[in-house]
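Input record (Table S2, row 166):
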Amino acid sequence: MSGKSDAAFTAIVDQTIAAAEAGAGFMAGFQAVKGGTMRGFSELRGPQGHVVAEYDLRAARGEIEPCPHLGRSPQPMYWSAHEPGRLCCARCHDRAQSALAGTEEDRRCDFCGRVEEAGQVYASAASRAAVVVRAPDGRVTAAGPLILRWGLCRACNASSSEGYRG
Ligand SMILES: [Zn+2]
Ligand SMILES: [Zn+2]
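Output record (zinc ion complex):
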C-alpha cells in the first residue's frame, strides 16, 4: 500500500463521512418539520414495508436511473416512491419537493393510490447508512446514505403501526 493510495482512501472516507452527516442532517430536519417517531428498518410494517421492498426490487432489477449529478464520489441519494424510477442528488430532490403544491397527485397514497382529501398524505423517510469498502485488491467502493421517501393515506399509515388492530 503506497502512501499515495492511503491518502486517496482517507479522502474517500472523509467524503463518505461528510455524506453520512449530510444525510443525518436531512433526517433530523425532516423529523423536526414533520414530527413523528424514528424507528428502525426492521420495524417498518405493512404498507411502509411494501414501499421499501419496492425500492429494493427496482434496484435489484436495475430499474432506477440516477440523476446526472450522482457521480462517483459519495453523497446522499434520494428516492421517492411517487417517482420510483429515479434516484436524485440533494439538489434534484429539493427541486422536486418544492414543486409539490398539494395537487391531487401530491396527495395520492404511495401504497393504495387513494387521494387523501383532508390535508396531505403522511410523509415518511427512511435512511440507510453510507458505506465505504476497500477490497483486497485495493479497489475502493463508496456510497453515500440512501434516503427513501414516501407518503401514505391515513388508513395505510395507521396500518403500518405496530399497535394497529384494523
Ligand atoms: Zn441531481
Ligand atoms: Zn393508502
